[in-house]
C-alpha cells in the first residue's frame, strides 16, 4: 500500500473543474456536473427500477480523467513500501502457502472493491448523481435500506471513518519504523559501524523533524514531491528484481511449504496491508470521465489489481527463495550496501518522510470540523492552535505505537489484520447486503437475494475469524518477540 492520500489529492487536483465543493458548513456533499446522462430505465411489475438498470446508467463527466490515467493513478497508489514486506509473508505462511494466500487476498480485495464501487454507483445515481466517499456511502446505504437501519446511519459513518483513521495512523507508524530501519542501514554504511543510539532513541530523533514537517498546513508542494517519490519506489523494485535474479536461490524443499494458522494469520495481515486500496477506490471512480470504465473484466480495477497481484506474488515468492530465513521486514534491507542501494534507501526515507505528512493532513481535515463545532467561536485562540494540537496528539499516538512495536515484521501484520481487514472485507460485505438485499427482495429476485446473502455472510464471518486469530497471533508475536 502506498500513500493513498497522495493519489487522492492528485485526483482532486486533476478533476477540480467539474466538482462543486462542499458548503462552508460542510454539510452538503459534492455534486457533479455531467456532459450527458443516459439512463436505461427498466420498470418491473412493481414500478421499481432494477439494480442493473441503475448501475448501468451511462455518465460522461466534463473534465474527468481517462481510464488510462485512472489506471496509472491506481497502480501508483497500490505499489508502495508495503510491497517490500511481502517476502516476510511467504516466510510466515510458507513458500506455497504464501503463494496461494497472495492470490486469495488479491481476489478478495478486488471483489470487495467491486462491491464498494457498485454500492456507491447505485446509491449515487438513485439519489441524484452525488459523489460519495467511503463514509458517505456507508451512511447513504443505511438511510436507503430497511427501516431499522436508518437510525444507525450516522453511527455507521462514524465507524467507517474511524476504521479509516485507525488505518491511516497505522500507516504513519509503519512509515516511521520503515524510515528508522533504513536510516540505521545508511548510518552503518557511511560510518562503517552501528549508530551509537538504540532503535528507540532513533525513533524519537526521527519524530522531531517529522513533527515539524507535519505542522505545515499547505500540502501542494509536499504532494508533488511524494508523487515524484513513486519513481523511487519503482527504481527500488527494479534493483530488487535484479538482485533476485542474480542471487543464489535456496532449494525450495529446504523452505517451509505451509506453516500453521498463526503464521498464516500474520501473513494475511501483512498481505491485507499491502493490498489495501479501498479508501482510494471511490475518489478514483468519482474522477473518471466514464465511471463504467472502473468495473468490468477489463476495467481499471480488474486490470490494476491483476497486475499488482502478479507483481506481489513475484516479489514475495522470489524474495523468500532468494533470502530464505534471513529475509528481513523489507527486501530493501536485504540488498547489499553500495553507493547505489544506499542512495535508493535514502530517497525512500525522504519519500516516507513527506508521505507521512500527507497521511496526517487528511486525518486532520476529517477530524477538525467536528472538533471546531464543539468549541465556541468566541475562543479564537483555541481555534487557531487546535489544528497544531490535533496534529501533535495524532503523531504522539503513532509514536507510542512505533515505540511499542518497533519492528516491520510485527507492525505491518498488526495494522493489516485489524483496521485493514475491517475496511477491506468485513465492512464491504455488510454494506453490500444493506444496499442490495432489500432491492432484490422487492423485485422478487430471490435467487440473487440468497446468493448475495450467503456469499456476504460467509465473507463477513471469515473476516471476523481472521481478525480474531490474526490479532491473537500478532499480540503473541509482539509479546514473545518471535522475529
From TrEMBL:
Lineage top rank: taxon: Eukaryota
UniProt keyword Transmembrane, yes or no: yes
Keywords: Membrane, Transmembrane, Transmembrane helix
Membrane-topology descriptor: Multi-pass membrane protein
Subcellular location, principal: membrane
Gene Ontology cellular-component terms listed: membrane
Domain Amino acid transporter transmembrane: 64-472
Record localization: Membrane
Regions crossing the membrane: 65-87, 93-111, 158-180, 221-241, 296-323, 343-364, 385-405, 411-437, 449-467
Region (Disordered) residue spans: 22-45
UniProt cross-references to InterPro entries, sorted A to Z: AA_transpt_TM
Basic and acidic residues composition-biased segments: 26-44
Record's protein name: Amino acid transporter transmembrane domain-containing protein
